Amino acid sequence: MGLLDWLFPEEETVKNEQIAKTEFKMLTGYRPVFKTHQGSIYESALIRSAVEAKARHISKLKVEFQGPAQPQLKNRLKYYPNPWQTWPQFLARCSTILDCTNNLFIVPVQDDYFQTIGFFPVLPDRVTLLEDKKGNMWVRYKFVNGQTGTIEFDRCAFLNKHQYSHDLFGESNRVLKQTLDLITIQDQAIEEAVKNSATIKFIRQVDNFTSPEDLRNERKRFNEYNLKDDRSELLLFPYSYKDIKQVNVSPFTVDEKQSELIKNNVFDYFGVSEKIIQSTANNEEQDAFFNSEIEPFAIALREAMSRAVYTDNERAYGNHCYVNPSRLQYMTINEKVNMAQQLGDRGALTINEIRELFNYPPLPSEEGDVAFIRGEYYAVSDKLGETPAQEQTQQEGA
Question: How far apart are the C-alpha atoms of 357 and 362, rounded to whole Å?
Fold first, then answer.
């Protein structure tokens, strides 16, 4: 049983193909087709570093499902998103696919009874939007190996980036082509510079040779005698050589400012900085990175997963997916202590949530999932109906 059988069981796929046959019509006039193959930007070391840095931080998010609906699925998703991945692996792959293709599809994993038991982020080669006779949207995935699968759009979680010309799908990364070309030229220039710096080139005039054949033979003899078998730091020249001059080649290399410009193009596009990649960012820089990149992803994933897991009626009764950033601990120990004190004293954090800030294991639920409020704090509603005399009497009695 392969992965495709878990995601798109053959019996269900055949049935779905018969239901959804018509392409879904878009307002922009674009065909409802998304193709992922645009040349892999992930093959560039610089781009991979930027994408991986973001994925590392996103993998620390904590996905939780709250509400009484779907208890069996909720219990499964509490520990892992599917039978093959942990939540950090799932989140890192979601981030990587989204950055590299600007579109992310997360499909349900199904058991033998077509019941959802998890979710898996897929990387299709081609995606086509279809509709049935009732106007419901369906998604047909075609993968690189030629296999296909069709499923209702409402059962999938979908995220996109850089959406403009298409009503649903994000744009391609073709705007990075010029930057990728510059990166390639820069790497080639450095490689050629290293090769040329290790090579001695010179020209000379040779007497007593009148035919091209004689010159070729002399060049071959000189190379074999000086540069092959008997290599040494001493080159020997006969009396027939005159006007020997070394040729100094100055290969083109990208200067520091140009190299910095290329890197900044990549960093700006993916919303990271060099300090984030090298893990040297301070608290303010990490907080800015969280607010601009991590939090928007967490919000988008929360809404998409809530829609895929729960029905409209279930969400109306408070069933929802939450993506908790509590594991993103970039605060100093003093800042953590201050946060625990300020929020813990007001009942905003439970004991286990405070322990998690300091990487301590949780206490049992009956002990750890408890919040406290300092004694001198009162709810505003408890004070609204009291007169100053009543308040003074309570204080004196206390």
Answer: 11
